[in-house]
Amino acid sequence: MDFSNALQHLKDEVKMQRKGWNGKGMYIQIQIPDANSKMTLPYLFMKTADDMFVPWLASQTDMLADDWCIYDDI
Question: 25: Cβ–Cβ under 8 A, 6 or more apart, which residues?
Fold first, then answer.
């Protein structure tokens, strides 16, 4: 799927990944702040191949890619 479809899934709180990513277990997800959060607006973060969580911004390559899919953690 393309990025616009992936973004809609993210807004529905579905974890997404690209088939082109090399690291096993990598995905992006939306974080919607609550009353206890330091952030006040939703943002995207990535779970990296080494099990770390980092803020994530889409690159031009990510936005133009057609290899987006729902994350499968099996």
Answer: 47, 49, 51, 73
